[in-house]
């Protein structure tokens, strides 16, 4: 619509520019033609046309405009150049009108695509009797160039006006129309970050957008309720398990004095207690740094790993598996990081799903301390690597083996509690590397 209105306004403006330029040229040359008609009156009566021919030549040289004078019989009596054909269509029309005592009509507007000269004729009159006509053949190249420049300026002005209208009116309207979709996009990003209580407004919107907003809100509510039920289930299960586990531990502690076998049962009870604790923490930690407020001294990750590896070396040796302790670079991390739980999951997975040798190392990478566990098994495909750490996810190669798919999810949750993350990658030479990357505490004194 804006473009149509601009075109409608441009057409008369373009015609005005061309008509005005043409009229200005016609009037200025008409004055010159009138002067020649006055000067030709006496020579046409006397027949002495030498001076008249000289005037025509001088005018032609000065203004680059050919001039000629004809008598009433259309014979050329004086001209600034030879070869004048009075029967040319434009000249014939002008002479017919002029020799009949009428002023010729104004020529058409000079648009850039039109060519040719402008014919300006004036009658030579004496006492009301027409003696002949003075005719100028006016070049129009400069006038057409002026019109072209004016049209280009007009076009530029129209483009600027359309741009200003688009920026000033259309763009705000577009923003207003798309605002509901932007709100929906922002809400979707909030949902993906874990803010499941995010909702979008559906008031005062188009019916289609209102239905889309209602559907989004229903989806978000379902996700929120599912997450709440999951938390409640894990919390209730953890609470219900703590009491019988505590009671069982008390009884087994008494039996452990009488039977060495009971000590193994006591170890399993402790392991169940740690599992319950991890499940409870997994359900409650949805954002990084949730438990990160602590006044305790930083924990040396390398030292904590070496201490835990003492027991695991015996476990691996009993299964005839090689456990290699690699580089151990000291690095302070948040004291609440559950290093034992993380290392237990990674080494248990490596022993079940990987192949020896299994290498454990602690290094620094910029502002992070990296705990790496590498095995030499089959590894994972590129798609599976992206899913490592998702709850209840298991690789297609390992689904027949015992497990719940929660081990690496617990590791990821533990790392996230202190602002860390878990990464998986295929190393050179095959196998799989699981990296737990946690922030380095700068003021740690090794």
TrEMBL record:
Top-level EC class: transferase
Lipid bilayer topology: Multi-pass membrane protein
Coiled coil: none
UniProt cross-references to Gene3D superfamilies, sorted A to Z: 1.10.287.130, 6.10.340.10, Histidine kinase-like ATPase, C-terminal domain (3.30.565.10)
Transmembrane stretches, start-end: 150-170
GO cellular component: plasma membrane
Cofactor: Mn(2+); Mg(2+)
Record has Transmembrane as a keyword: yes
Stored InterPro entries: 2C_sensor_his_kinase, HAMP_dom, HATPase_C_sf, HATPase_dom, His_kinase_dom, HisK_dim/P_dom, HisK_dim/P_sf, Sig_transdc_His_kin-like_C
Domain of life: Bacteria
Protein name: Signal transduction histidine-protein kinase/phosphatase MprB
